[in-house]
Amino acid sequence: MSSVLRQFYYKKDKLREGKKEMLWGIRRFLSNFRSIFRRPFGRGSIYRLERLKSVVRMKENGENRSEKNGLGVDKGIRKYEKRKLNARSQKAYKFFNVKNILIILILIFTFIFVHFSGYSTKSLYFSIFIYIGVTLYLLIVERFFEKVEVQEEIKNIKNDREREHNVFLERVKEIEDLEKNQIEHIFLKDSEDYDMKIWKVGRATSLLIGKQSPRNRVDIDVSEGIYSNLVSRAHGILNRVNGIWYYEDLGSQNGSGIERSLDKRKMKLKKNIPVKVESGDIIYLATTKILLK
SUPFAM superfamilies, from UniProt (predicted)? Predict the structure, then answer.
């Protein structure tokens, strides 16, 4: 009797332990299940998620940027040539041209000749000779002509590319010359060629040169010059058009002159006619000298 009770209690304890383990397992599962939904709402999780997204975006942008920067000149040239060849090879190819029609006629007449010859040995040898000749023509001669045409196309493409490159270099040179000849400062000189006054041009597109007065406002006031009494109140004007500077005498009483920086040649300017000026040129307002630099 005691052994039966002992076994009964033993089984009861086992069932109780099994229930506890099962309850603990269910509890752990539910806690993990709740953490799945609870984790993204935490501040740290959102930060990590946004951080991962930003890292992925930065990597993608970096790869795209590296791919763009890695595209060398030679690769660009090859792509350009391939694009040109594809554009030129898109022309409609006519199958029924003179050569193909002649080949088809030769094959048809050869077959007819063999048929009417009763498939004799001579006719078969003749047909084999014809077929071999046509095959060799297609394999050698046609391939040679195709190769010559492709080489000619590549040569034309290279010539076009060199021509475009030369045009590009000329354009770059023009832009460099234009930037080199831009006027950034205007200097008022004295009789000993010292700087008396300096004006910064900046982004100005029009500068009126003359003498300042209560009734006459100018951008470049040369009243401090030694011979400023010979300068009119509105003596001349500098205008910038498409990046190029022009000077125009506004009908002054004593006139204007210019000294070129390239050959030091002096010339008197006509009134109300714009003249192109560059960096290094000297404009004379009567005898007052201003340097463009």
Answer: SMAD/FHA domain
**What's the structural domain count of the chain?**
3
Asked, for residue 143, whether it belongs to a domain, the answer is yes
Q: How far apart are CA 242 and CA 44, in angstroms?
A: 57
Assess if residue 116 is contained within a domain: yes
Domain residues for the domain of 195 are 185-292
Does one domain contain both 59 and 110?
no
For residue 204, what are the contacts with CB-CB under 8 A and spacing of at least 6?
A: 219, 240
pTM: 0.46
Annotate 88-126 with DSSP letters as a single string: HHTSPP-SSSHHHHHHHHHHHHHHHHHHHTTS-HHHHHH
Q: What is the mean pLDDT of residues 80-102?
A: 63
Name the burial class of residue 126, with classes exposed (0-12), middle (13-18) and buried (19+) by CB atoms within 10 angstroms of its CB.
Answer: middle
d(CA 3, CA 11): 12
Q: What are the CA-CA distances from residue 88 to residues 80, 152, 204 (Å)? A: 12, 12, 49
Choose one of 132, 155, 178: the last residue of a domain. Answer: 178
Q: Which of 158, 178, 198 is the last residue of a domain?
A: 178
* Mean pLDDT rounded to a whole number for the chain: 76
In 3D space, the residue among 155, 185, 154 whose CA is nearest the CA of residue 83 turns out to be: 154
Torsion angle of C-alpha atoms 106, 108, 110, 114, degrees rounded to 10: 180
Taking only the tens place, the pLDDT of each residue in 227-281 is 888 999 999 999 999 888 999 999 999 999 999 988 888 999 999 999 999 999 9
Residue 87 in domain: no
How far is 181 from 246, CA to CA, in rounded Å? 12
Q: Are residues 130 and 159 in the same domain?
A: yes
Assess whether 114 and 146 both reside in one domain.
yes
Higher pLDDT, 227 or 14: 227
Measured between alpha carbons, how far is 257 from 238 in angstroms, rounded to an integer? 14
